[in-house]
Structures are given as C-alpha cells and as structure tokens.
Amino acid sequence: MTTATSLSRLAAPAAPLAPAAPPRRHAAVSLLATRAVDVAAGLILPLLLLGLWQYAVDRHWLAEQILPAPALVWDSLVDLWQSGELGTHLAISLTRLAWSLAIGGGAGLLLGVAMGVSAPAKAYLYPSFQLVSQFPVIGWVPLLIVFAGIGEALKISAIAIAVVVPVAVNTYRGIRNIPRALLEVAAVYRFTFGQTVRRLVLPAAAAGIFNGLRQGVMHAWLSLVFVELLASSEGIGYLMVWGRQLLQLDIVVVGMLVIGAVGIVLDRLLAWGEARLQGWQRQAY
Amino acid sequence: MRILTNIRDTDLRGFVLPLAFLVLWYLVTALQLVNTKLIVPPAAVVAAAWDVVGSGQLLTGLRASLVRDLSGFAAGSGAGILFGLLLGVSRWAERLVGPTFHTLKQISLFAWLPLLSTWLGTGESAKILFIALSAFYPVALNTFEGVRSVTRAQFEVARVLGFGRLQRLFRLVLPAASAQIATGLHLALLYAWLATIGAEYLLGSSAQGVGSVVIRGKATFHVELIVVGMLLIGLVGMGLNRLAALVEGRVLHWRGPAR
After folding, report:
1. Would the ipTM clear 0.85, i.e. be above it?
2. What is this structure's pTM?
3. Which of A41, A134, A145 sits opposite B238 (nearest CB)?
4. Is A54 in the same domain as A79?
C-alpha cells in the first residue's frame, strides 16, 4: 500500500510529461516529411529538364556538336577528372582566387580601417575611392592586359580590384557604425591606437567586414571567370574556351557544372562563417 | 550664391589625390621616365578622345551599346519581376522551381557565354539574351524577397476589405514589395551594363559598341583608345547609377523618409 502510493507519487510527476512527448516526435516526423516533400518537389524540374535534354538528343533535334548528350557530358566529366586535367585547371583557378582575395582583401581592410578611424584619411581618400568604385571592374581588364601582359599578374590584379571595393566600403561602414560610447570607454581606459583597433574597432566591425568579404568573394569569382575566358592559357575558364574552340560542348558544359559547384561551395562556406561569427556575437550578451 | 557656398562647403582635400595622380601621370610621360607607348601622355588621351568623338565612331558605338544594354535590361527585369512574383505568391511554385533557380544562380554569369555563343552565334541575340540573364537574377531575387515581406496582418486586412486576387496583387503585394523591387532593378541596371561590356569584349569586335572600341584599341595597341573607352564605360556606369538612384527616390517618395 505504502509502496504503491510512493510509487504512484514517483510516477505522478512523470505523468504530465508523458503526453507531451508523442506530439514532439510527431512534429519531428512531420517536419521530416515536409522536408522530404520539399526535396522531392525540388527535384521534379531538374529531372524533367534532364529528360527533355535526353529526348532532344535522341530525336536529333539539334546536332551533337551543339547539344551533347547528358551521358557524354558525364563521361567527359569523369574523363577529365581521372586524367587530372580538371583538377589542375581547378587548382590554378582557385589559387588565383585565393591570392587575389588575400591581396585585395588585405588592401581593402587597410583602406577601410584607415578611412573609418582617421577623419583626414577619409577626407583625402574617400572621394577618389568612391569615383574608382563606380567603374565596372571588367572595364579595367584591357588596360591591365596592356600593362601586366596576360600573365598571372593580370589575373590576380584584376580580381584583387574586384575585392578591394566591397571590403573597404563595408569595413568603413562597419567602423562608422560603432557607437561613440564604446570609443569613449576605450579612451577612458587609455587604449593605445593599436589596442583600440585590435580590441575594439575590428571586433565591433566584424560583421560588416565579413559582409564585405562575402561580396568580395562573389565579385572575385565573377571576374575570375571573365578574365580566364578573355585571356588565359590555364584555368577552368580556359578549359571552357578550349572546349568551345574544338566545338566540344560537353567540355563547356562540364566547365559550367564545375563553376556552379564551386559557387555553391563558396556560398555555403561563407554562410557557415557568417553563422559562426554571429554565434560569437550572441555569446557576448 | 548657392554655388559659392557649395564650393566653400566642399572638402577640397578630396581633390588632392586625383590631382596628384594627374600631375604624376603628366610628369612621368613628359620626362620620358616610362615607355610612352605603354603609358601614354594625358594629352594623347585627350586628342584620341577628341578624335573618336569627332569622327562619330564613339557615339554610334555608345548608342549601340546602350540600346543593347537597355533592351536586355527591359527583357530580363520584366521576366524577373514576373518570376519573383510567382515564386513569392505561390508556395508550390517556390517548391517546384526554387531549388533549381537557386542552384542555377550559382553558375557565374560569364560561364554562360560560351554556351550561348555556340547556340546563338556572336550576334545581337546572344548578347541581349546574356544581358537579360544578368538582369534577371537580381530582380527575381529581390522581388521574391519583397513579396515575402508582406506581413500576415497586411494580408488579413486585405481579406477583410474583400480584395479580389488582382486587387490584392496591385494594391497590396506590389506596393509593399516596391522598395525591394526597386533595389533589384537598380542592381540589375548595374549588372546589365557589366554584362554589356563583358559580352562586347568576349563576343568579337565586329559589331558596334563601346566595348568593341576598347578591344580594337587593344588589338592595335592604341593605349589612348583603351583609356578613352574605359573612361566612357565608367562614366556611363556612373550615370546609370545616378539615374537609378534619382528615379528610385522619386518613385518611392510616397513611402516617406527612410528610417
């Protein structure tokens, strides 16, 4: 009797919890189901397009040179990958991207910090900077070709210019948006200039800087493909030009697939980085 | 009077850097410190500009480029608004087409050019289609986001007022999304100009266009011609940007000052 009551007492607190559990599992299942439906729905159109593509090839609506079969594209992708050709070209393109991000991002960061921290620097630099930033990046390329030849220097400088502008502008804005009070606290603590930049300005402007970097990466990727298409003897863009000249459109399509895949990976990486950055900000409060 | 105060209020320090650049440019060429075939003297650029403007070559090129740019922009942004509206209003359209759209968006713009030029040749249609594509993405994306920013409460008010489908579209959804759509159109205008220049650079120089002037200058190693073309490209880009900002301000005036 006593054991029974104590047991029931023990059991009692569990009782209200019990009915709550099934709906949660139910919600999880239904969430999973919606996800599955979403994925399935998203796949319908690509599959339809693929089907249409195959059908068009089967019916010889267009010449093989103009519309390669999906299977041929897949074979070329596997071939190019296994021969290492695709890997080499991709590595070259990505190296260019990395160098110009480092150079352009570094220069943009310096410019942005200088304009954000020092009023005279802003007065001297900002108008010219604003003027230059309005010129489409691609317009520079022919001039750079004349100055830098069609070597590596051309590609890296052309792409670096594409990175400098968004990084500098966003860094500058990020710093401008720092509340005055924080700067005054730094002054009260008698922070040196270096300390102010390292311990206040950069962390406070981090979100803006990252936003600029994100735009910079996207601009860089856009202009990299352009420069490689226009003047190059290596790289993923060149691979496409080469395929186009041989009228092997399967290679062109492979190039597009790879460029799309790199774009997706870059986008995901940046989203991940941004999420981490925001996670850090939330912890601070 | 107003001009005078304007001049007094402008911070002259902003002119130091451009002026220093011009002086440096003049000095290194005048003193023959550099190869003047490579770094042409400023006077040569002015003379070349005078020449191509006088011969009408530049103006016909500019007109051809602008017509191309604007027709691509009109087609692309029109399609983008329709597509964005459809995706924003209908959950099913978003489920069906959204993933494909977001994946294709990741293919860098210029990667489409080799394929387009094989299918359509290097003529006007390939260029305009490419420019339209470049304008399509930003407009579609921003329209979609604008439509999604319509709140549940606004939607319910429209229902209480007994709005029909079309009324809801024209009196609720489109006005509510107008700021975002304008942002998309502004971006699209800049992208379309970029694409125009890119297409003219990459798809041969036989046709008229500002980009062709530059490419011809490069081929014949007339650096002054390249510089003139570049300046013109930049000026047009700047002008389009200003124009878009102006129109945006006028059209969205009813929304009142931004927060």
Report:
1. no
2. 0.82
3. A134
4. no
